[in-house]
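Slide 14.
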Amino acid sequence: MAVHPLVEKVLAARPPIAELIGFTVEDIGAGCAVGSLQAGPEHANPMGTLHGGILCDISDAAMGMAFVTTLAPDESFTTVMLSIQFFRPVWQTLLRAEARVINRGKNMGYVECDVTDQDGRQVAKASSTCFVLRGERAKVR
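Slide 15: predicted structure.
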């Protein structure tokens, strides 16, 4: 199967959201993707811990890239559901988001992501349901 143009784009340059919050896509391939982020004070909520939206962002990015590897070059997708469970607070640590496609049907897919800290402790688990776009709907805007 040919490499999807979005995978090539991400490998060539960090996506704008990655630049904004500071995550890096480390690996993409065969229904899996890994991203990382050095959590720091710039990512804190008012209580001083990591804002949950940052965990959502890195999970969503990793799950999206994992799902893209299942698409034909003329397909795209949109996320129709995203869920995340937070297990422990995070302050300043290196986070790793490891995503894998669990199920890929003709029109829908289900992806999960484990987020761990630099000591390998799980801090969150996310899942998403993706809807495959084809034809005019799949064109990059």
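Speaker note: The chain is about 20% helix and 40% strand.
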